[in-house]
Design brief:
By secondary structure, the protein is an alpha+beta fold. It contains 5 helices and 7 strands; from the N terminus they run H-H-H-E-E-E-E-H-H-E-E-E.
Amino acid sequence: MFNYPRSGPARRTNQLAMAAASSPALPAMRPAILACLLGIFSPAAQAGLGDVISPAQGPVADARAMHARSFSTVLDASASTSLPYSSHRIVLPDGGVATEFADAGGFVFAVSWAAPTMPDLASLLGAYKPSLDRAQVAQRSSRIRSPRLLNATAGDWTIVSSGHLRAYSGYSYLSSRLPAGFDLATLR
C-alpha cells in the first residue's frame, strides 16, 4: 500500500515519525512543546496607548515591535519633578518618528507619529486599534469623505490623523489620563 523509500533522508524521516507515534511519552509532552513554541514565536510584550511600559524592558519592546532604527527617552518623568511624564522617541525604519508619552508609572497616555509611510498603528494604539477601525468605517459611511484626514473621538479616546504619500502624521490620546499642564500642541 505505502511506498516507503529504502534509503536516504526520506527513510530516516519516516523512521523518526513512526518512532514518535509509538512513543507513550509524546502525548504527555505536547503541552510542554506547545508552551515552548508559543514562548519562542510570540512577540515581545509591548505597550501601546493605554498600556503600561514594562519596567524591565522599557520602550525597547515597542522599538523592536516597530523594527525601529533607534529609540531614546526625551524627558524622564522620574528625573524631572516639573514634568510628570516621559517621552520615548522611536525612529522608524523609513526615517519617520513615533513618540510615546508615558506618566511616571509608565502608563502610555498619548502617542504621535510623523513618517513618509503609515507606521504600525496596531503597535502604537494597542487596545484602541479596533476603535480606529470603527472610526474609519464610520467616516467612510458618512458624508464627510476625506481620505487624508481622520478626526474621531470615542469617549475618553481621541485620534487625529492626516496624510498622503510620503507625509503621514497624527496623534492619539486619552483625555482623562493627560497629566496636569500637558499641552496638546506637544503632540503635533
